[in-house]
Design goal:
With 355 residues, the chain is mostly helical. The chain folds into two domains: 1-47; 113-352, MetI-like (MetI-like fold, Orthogonal Bundle). Helix content is 77%, strand content 0%. The chain is built from 15 helices and no strands. Helix 5 (106-141) packs antiparallel against helix 6 and helix 5 crosses helix 15. The two termini are 32 Å apart.
Length: 355
């Protein structure tokens, strides 16, 4: 290798290294700016709602001097920019105050209830991906046929029907009439005080400990709300899968593969779907994030003791520390998954790395 070739190779390595560093810096700046915006929005929402945090703590009948002292302790008498600075410092350290409803630190409550939401959203995403991807592939391959129309109608219903109405209908049919599933809640009262969770993910803990009767009971409780969330995830995933597959099936490499005599099954599942899997991974990740932050109504209907139900109960009791803390937790998870999916997309698809 000549000196000129060596110099050129060194320059290329430096450019790649510089590009990687700039990409990391952009990612960090984007994440920091997004989280700062999230904190700012939740802070100002907490200040404009017609709920006085001091009155929520001491009650409506407390003397005026007691209310004023509590307001001073909370820093509510300070200028708004000072309040935001204090709020920002506390939020960065995970201090969202104390819940009026439970008298526990809000962060401790979130750590206790969030595994239930993650467990429910995970079941929903698995159901949505396992059924939605094949349906989307079928709709793309049979474009314009009755099968395609049925898949599109299924997706349209998933987008259009209110989740609370469908949840109540599912409870009436599968619990009240057919008795196929357990009543709303997460675990039967028989096992509630005898089962000892380890990680907070009850199904995983029951299987890990070999308590199969508890695992079956947990499954009967989670399957209906999980299937409901899975249906809404399925509607989104099947629609996007169909779109991606239609784009891939129109590419020249598919025509070349057919000209070579490859079977249609191999072309669809091993070539077209493989190329469509890159954006599809991002779609599934975003669907998962959507279920995490959008399961409030589902948890309320099915009395599922997750973060959504925790926020709902806190809002009904004017517990703004818990409401804002839970909102921030959901927002952080949603933004993190969005950023991670974008990073994953760039990693899996080299064509997007220099964009």
């Amino acid at each position: 290798m000549t000196l000129i070739d060596t110099t050129a190779a060194t320059r290329r390595r430096r450019r790649r290294a510089s590009s990687s560093v700039m990409a990391v810096l952009r990612f960090i700046v984007t994440a920091a700016t997004t989280f700062l915006g999230l904190l700012a929005v939740t802070f100002f929402i907490g200040r404009v709602v017609p709920i006085d945090p001091a009155l929520a703590i001491v009650g409506d009948r407390a003397p005026a001097h007691v209310v004023e002292r509590v307001r001073e302790q909370l820093g509510l008498n300070l200028p708004l920019y000072e309040q935001f600075w204090i709020y920002l410092k506390q939020a960065v350290t995970g201090d969202f105050g104390t819940s009026v409803l439970t008298t526990n630190p809000v962060m401790a409550d979130i750590a206790r209830v969030f595994p239930a939401t993650i467990e429910l959203a995970t079941i929903g995403t698995i159901i949505g991906a396992l059924i939605g991807v094949p349906l989307g592939v079928l709709a793309a391959v049979k474009r314009g046929s009755i099968a395609d129309q049925i898949v599109r109608v299924i997706g349209l219903i998933g987008y259009s029907v209110p989740i609370f109405w469908l949840g109540l209908l599912a409870l009436v049919l599968f619990y009240a009439r057919l008795n196929w599933v357990a009543y709303p809640g997460r675990i039967d009262i028989v096992y509630e005080y005898t089962f000892t969770p380890i990680t907070g993910f009850y199904l995983l803990d029951a299987v890990w400990q070999g308590q199969w009767d508890v695992a079956w009971d947990l499954f009967r409780h989670i399957i209906l709300p999980g299937a409901l969330l899975g249906y809404f995830s399925l509607a989104y995933i099947s629609r996007m899968t169909r779109s991606f597959m239609l784009n891939e099936l129109a590419q020249e490499y598919v025509v070349a593969a057919r000209a070579k005599g490859l079977s249609e099954t191999r072309i669809i599942w091993f070539h077209a779907l493989r190329n469509a899997a890159v954006p599809l991974v991002t779609v599934i990740a975003l669907s998962y994030a959507g279920l995490l932050e959008g399961s409030v109504l589902t948890e309320t209907i099915f009395s599922w003791p997750g973060l959504g139900l925790y926020i709902t109960n806190s809002l009904q009791n004017a517990d703004m520390n818990a409401v804002l803390g839970g909102t921030i937790a959901i927002g952080v998870v949603f933004v993190s998954i969005n950023l991670f999916s974008d990073l994953l997309y760039r990693t899996l698809d080299p064509r997007t790395r220099n964009r």
